[in-house]
Amino acid sequence: MLSLTLFFTKNIDSAIAQWWSIRLLTEGLQVRVLLAEPKSLRSNLRLSSFMYTVYVLYSKNYSKIYIGQTADIERRLFEHNNGLLSYYTKRYIPWQIIYTEDYPARNEALKREKQLKSQKGREFIWNLIN
User: What band does 86 get if pLDDT is binned at 50, 70 and 90?
Assistant: First the structure.
């Protein structure tokens, strides 16, 4: 049986938490519901190896790059390749991931994303491609 932990803040209605538990149990999942204050919920998620990924996409057909960050790289690549995100990436489909870096905190990932978007960062990326 698969196991799943649901994190809810204390100000959520307990009936909603119970509904999710029952719904997921009927799907064959063992469920553990944790109620926490919003701040402690954030620290619980950080302790559970939640990572942010800085990524570089490359469109070989158009020789274009795109730099971003996300908490779910597979979902984000799907969104880019199906035109669900920015107008820029929609124009140059298909995209492939050519470079990633993982960070434990979003602010660190944003800082690195900004560095990669600079002139020196773009030179680094183009050197990887060429």
Answer: confident
Q: pLDDT tier at 91 (50, 70, 90 boundaries)? A: very high
Q: What is the pTM of this model?
A: 0.63
8 A C-beta contact, residue 73 and residue 55? yes
Q: Do the beta carbons of residue 116 and residue 67 sit within 8 Å?
A: yes
Q: How far apart are CA 128 and CA 123, in angstroms?
A: 9
Is residue 83 within 8 A of residue 93, CB to CB? The reply is yes
Show me where the domains of the chain are located. Answer: 2-47, 52-129
User: Which residues partner with 101 through β-bridges?
Assistant: 54
State the fold for domain 52-129.
Answer: GIY-YIG endonuclease (3.40.1440)
Residue 70 tokens, joined: 């996300």
Place of tokens 């602010």: 107
Task: Kindly calculate the radius of gyration of the chain based on its CA atoms and give it in whole angstroms.
Answer: 19
